Structure formats: structure tokens, C-alpha cells
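Table 4 source record.
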Amino acid sequence: MKEIIPVLVCTAILLMGACHGNDAAVTRQEKKDSSFAIIGKVTGQDNGIIYLIHRQTGKTDSAYLDHGFFKFSGKADTAEFCRISLNDQMKSFFLENGKISMLITKDAVKQAQITGTRLQEEFNYFQNQLGKPLTDKMAALESAYDSASKKKNQKALDSLDKAFEALDIEQKNLVIDYTKSHPASLLSAFEIYSNFLYNFRLGQLDSAYQQLDPVARASYFGRQIQKMIEKTKLTSVGSAAPEFSNKDANGKSISLSSFKGNYVLVDFWASWCGPCRRENPAVVKAYQRFHGKGFNIFGVSLDDTKADWVAAIKKDGLSWTQVSELKGWDADVVSLYGIKAIPMNFLLDKNGVIVARGLRGEELVLTLQKLLP
């Protein structure tokens, strides 16, 4: 199954549509508020510790519940996309200077009501007004996919894969339309970054980025988009695949260049990645069909535990070369190829030039049929 970034799947309470205000309001608020104050209440739990996770910096703050009440305060140099965490349940929100209110139910943290700052109100509106139709479609597709997977109904799975692809396009178009009408919004930069992480077209991403005004481009997420564009240019169709070498399960170092002379699929996956594991049967089928015609696969795992990695290789019948740094997302090759989500792959010709990327299911077979009839 194609892994769609679940930004629109977040659940939040519908609040007033503050996003309709002009972008100058953001500047006025930033000048007025020089610090933030989060005031919250947890119903159903009087004591315990609640955490504020700064996703962009890796910093974590904590506060004790006092009869269910809690408070965080500080200064935000820039708007951050953070998480509030309680009892291993999390809810994402935007942190910026100003007053932020949170109403949380003990066993339903994901449904927390978070209000206050203009950017958070805009985020609430986008998620619950503009994004809700896509959220509902995503939930229905995921339920159908789980059912078909349990029944091993490959025909249904193939059909649902196409539905996921169509939904992904619809989701990206929503973000593009929003950006056109809100070019100065930091939310536009955030949504572009979040929704174009997986298997995007470079031209489409660059076009969306160009819609942003200088303030949004200079934001954290604007800078991340720029980095994505730069990395993608290195691995775009027609480019020579960046050289790298990693060790297999026996500790032997294997380089990408050793596959020259054959068509090779550089396949990024991990044992813990559900969509990757569900995709593996299709990759196995393609390998068995075309290996004798000069097709090979170079599997690159983002695992961090050798035992899990090796067990998944055996269980899924992955008989081709597999390597891993066993560093998870911190692997050097992840940065080298600009990988933001898996499964992801790159098809190289006999000279190591990328001829296709992000091939899944039947699309992989159809591409190989043209190249290796």
C-alpha cells in the first residue's frame, strides 16, 4: 500500500475560521506577544506528568498535573509544530508566543481541544473544515485495506492501491490550492512539507514552493522544503544514482556500483514498516519474473535491530542482496537520497542512471516489461 503521510488524519475540534484573516495579523500578534503560556485541564485524571515535545529541536518539557490542571510557559523564537503527550497518547499542535488553551480527556488525548493563537486556529480550520472529506475517505480506505489484507484478496488490494494514489493526488491538490490563497501563511509551508514527503514530482513540489512568499520560505518548514528540492534533484530521473556502500547481515560491505551492468532497484524498506511488508510480495514477484533477464535488487533497510531485520528478510522471502547501517532514520544513506518516507525505491539502468522512482505493485512490473521484454 502506498504510504500517505497522515497529516489530514489528525483529529481536532472545529473552531472559528481564523485563517480567513489577512496575513498581516500574524505579524501583529508576533510583535504583541513575546512569550507563550499554555494553560490546560485534563478531565478524568488529577495527578501525573504531561509532556511538551518540541519536534523540531528534540527538546522535551514536563509539568505535573495539579487536580488535572497544568501549565507550560516560555518564549518561542519561531512557530513550532509540537506534541502534547499524556499516558503515551499524543496530540500535535502549533506552539507560538501567545496564550494557548488545552482541554484534554484522559483517554482521548488525540481529540484534545487546543485553541488560542492564530496559527493554531488556522490549523484547526484546515484539519476540520478543508481536510475532513479526505480524512473520512482515508479512514474508509484503511478499513477496506485491512479487511482485504486479512483475506489475502490481491485483486481488492490492487484496486485500493490505486484509490490511495488518487487520494494522495487529491490531498496534494488541496494543499496547493490553499497555498495559492495563503502564500504568507506558515501553515501553507507546513502542509507542503508534510504532504509532499512521499513520492512527489519535483516539478510539482517546486511549483508549490514558489507560491510561498519570502516570509513563509524563510520559516523552518520553508527551509525544509528547499532542502527536499535540492536533495530530490540529486535523485531525479536522468541523474546518476549517488554512490554508497553498506554492510549485509554477515558484515560484508557491498557498494551500489557493484550492480552496474544490470537494471537494479534500490529498495528502501524496514521490518517495522507495515506498507513495506505489504509491498514485499509484489517486489518478490517482480524479482522472480525479471531476475533472469538482467534485473537485480539492492535492498536497503532502515532497521536498527539486526534480529528484526534478518527475521523479516526470511519471512518475506527476500532472496536478493540486503544491507543496513542499523541506524534507522539516522542512516547516512537516508540523508544522501533524501528519503522522508518508506517504502521508496529507485530503478537504475545498466549504467547506474535513475530511470524511474517510487514504483509500486503493478507499476514496477509494467516498467520492467518495457525495459526487459
